[in-house]
Design goal:
single chain; mainly alpha; DUF1836 domain-containing protein; DUF1836
Length: about 200
């Protein structure tokens, strides 16, 4: 694919407009592990970088349970709460370590019951997250457009075959820098407001 403004905008738009799993799409009935992994594979397959990548495996679910990031299944079945937590884990693990996710999730779990605290309504948390994300997408696209314009202005006098390569290189550097800034801020929030 040729590096040009239209193509880079298209790639970014695909990412920002990627459909999240709506609360209404989560089955109302409890699911067995195979059904859970199939559900995630069906709903999130568009987020894979490579076709052979796995969204969620039985091993991952078992490890999340052992690590106390996910409460144990109830009679080998996973509830709506489990499904929401797995969606959140999937989102969080894109940028945070499992230890940080564990710290964050421990704040909402009751140690004695290994369940979500009674006053934490995870479905409402998830709905709020989706609403905020949707509202933020427009701002994110505006910021992205400003970033691309800044890169183009910076390289306006650059000529020759290497211009596209340098634009790609700088675009990746700036995107990762911004992602790292948000990730480091999230880590600091966990360190300062969640850890004991």
């Amino acid at each position: 694919m040729e590096y040009n403004r239209g193509n880079i905008d298209k790639l970014f738009h695909e990412i920002v407009q990627a459909k999240e799993i709506a609360i209404e799409e989560i089955p109302c009935i409890d699911l067995y592990m195979d059904q859970v992994t199939t559900f995630f594979e069906d709903k999130l397959s568009n987020s894979k970088r490579n076709p052979e990548d796995k969204i969620l495996t039985k091993t991952m679910i078992n490890n999340y349970t052992k690590g106390k990031i996910l409460m144990p299944a109830k009679k080998k079945k996973y509830t709506t709460e489990h499904m929401i937590l797995l969606i959140l884990i999937y989102n969080l693990k894109q940028g945070l370590s499992i230890n940080d996710i564990n710290t964050l999730f421990n704040s909402i779990f009751d140690e004695k019951t290994e369940e979500i605290k009674k006053n934490v309504h995870i479905d409402e948390v998830y709905k709020s997250f989706l609403r905020i994300k949707t509202k933020g997408n427009e701002e994110l696209e505006n910021n992205f457009n400003t970033m691309i314009e800044t890169i183009e202005e910076e390289l306006i006098n650059l000529q020759g075959e290497e211009k596209d390569l340098i634009q790609v290189f700088i675009t990746v550097l700036v995107l990762i820098d911004r992602a790292n800034s948000y990730r480091r801020t999230a880590e600091k929030v966990i360190d300062n407001f969640v850890k004991d």
